Structures are given as structure tokens and as C-alpha cells.
Amino acid sequence: MPIAKGAFMTTELGLLIVTIVFGLFQVLGTGMVVSQERGLNFSMSARDDERPLTGARARIHRAYRNFMETFGFFAAAVLVAGLLGRHDALTLSGAWVYVISRFIYWPLYVWGVPVIRSLVWGASVVGIVLVLLGIVVG
């Protein structure tokens, strides 16, 4: 897909955009569940008296925080790969592994599924490592 004269968007950059949209979904979803549990007045306050979330709402909030812990590394790796013109099987498979893992991870966390959730999280980290390997090796 042409984006500027002589430039093309790689699949990895497209997957980064998909992941950004997924992150925005999580921001909005987390905000909604926090407001549901703590009330609109709390959401519009300075939040000095924060009560802990419970149940699925707490898991939604933690799943979002967990996403944010890895997203920056993924985004940076994909952007570096794009800037350096690295686009190969490693960067492509790594980006796909990360994105698919993050999409699978979210419902597993929200539903409270142990063990498998952690394995899927590990797969997302492997995806980032694959992108980095593609940068270094490519």
C-alpha cells in the first residue's frame, strides 16, 4: 500500500496500527468498567481515594496494564524495523505472533484462565524477540 512517494507500509506496520486500535479499545473498556464499579463522580475526581476493583473488572484493568507493559517494546521494535527497511520472515512472524497472542491473552485474563494465559503472554514476548532478531540478523 503506497503511503508516500517511494514508501510502502509493511505488514508489520499495519499490524502495529491494528494493535494501537486494540490498545484504544482496552483504554476505553477499562475506563468504562472503572466508572461502573467506582461511579462517575470518582472517575471525574482527582482519584485520591481509590478503592480496589473486584472480579472481572479488576481483571480487565490488569489485562490493560499488562498490555501496556509489552506494547511499547513491540511498537519500538516494529518502528525500528520499518526505519531500517527490515522486512523478512522473522519480523513478519514476530509481529503476527505478538498481535495474535495479545488478542488471545485479553479474554483469557478477563475470564480468569490460569496457566494458558501465562503461556500466551510468553508467546507475545517471543513475538517481540523475533522482530528484534529480524532487525539484527536481517
TrEMBL record:
It is found in: Membrane. Its main location: membrane. The keyword ATP-binding does not apply. It holds the Pfam family MAPEG. The chain crosses the membrane at residues 13-34, 67-84, 90-111, 118-137. One of its GO terms (cellular component) is membrane. Keywords: Membrane, Transmembrane, Transmembrane helix. SUPFAM superfamilies: MAPEG domain-like. PANTHER family: BLR7753 PROTEIN (PTHR35371:SF1), INNER MEMBRANE PROTEIN (PTHR35371). This is MAPEG family protein. The lineage of its organism: Bacteria, Pseudomonadati, Pseudomonadota, Alphaproteobacteria, Acetobacterales.
